[in-house]
Amino acid sequence: MQCDLLDKAADRVMKGWCKEWRHRNGRVCALGAFEDVASTEGRNAEHHPTTQPLVFLLASLLPESYDIDSKPYPTPTNISAWRAAWRIANWNNAPDRTKEQVAAKMREAAEVCRIQQSEVITTS
């Protein structure tokens, strides 16, 4: 995993953040930040091979209360990716959410990512 992309996404959020849209007037939500820093070639972050593991990691650090179980999913094979994206989007869009909180959670995910990678290296 490219843990540094989480830090870059956090920096991108701090430059301009929004709710309800992935990209709007030069600002991005949490998912849009991944797409900007990773050059996802027009694909959503949750479906791009570079960013998908990072999306799953960030989503795993957020409360399940942000899931939307009633939303229909486009295809059964993408349920996990869509659930992760919805959890992040709903958390990002919470009324009291701030860009500082979004960036901080991304940096926390970056640290978790680095710890996971170092554990893999030391056990190999």
Describe this entry's structure for a reader.
The protein is built from five helices and two strands. Strand 1 and strand 2 form a beta hairpin. The longest helix is centred in the last third of the chain and has 25 residues. Helix 1 packs antiparallel against helix 5. With 124 residues, the chain is mainly α. The relative contact order is 0.19. It has one domain. The chain has a two-stranded antiparallel sheet.
Give a quick precis of the structure.
With 124 residues, this protein is mainly alpha-helical. Helix content is 56%, strand content 3%.
**Structurally, how many domains make up the residues?**
1
Radius of gyration equals 14 Å
Order of helices and strands: HEEHHHH
Helix content: 55-70%
Q: Tell me what portion of residues adopts beta-strand conformation.
A: under 5%
Which of globular, elongated, flat, extended, rod-shaped describes the shape? Answer: globular
User: Low-confidence stretches at least 5 residues in length (pLDDT < 50)?
Assistant: none
Total strand segments: 2
Question: Strands across the major sheet, in which order?
Answer: 1-2
Average pLDDT, rounded to a whole number, is 87
Head-to-tail CA distance between termini: 16 Å
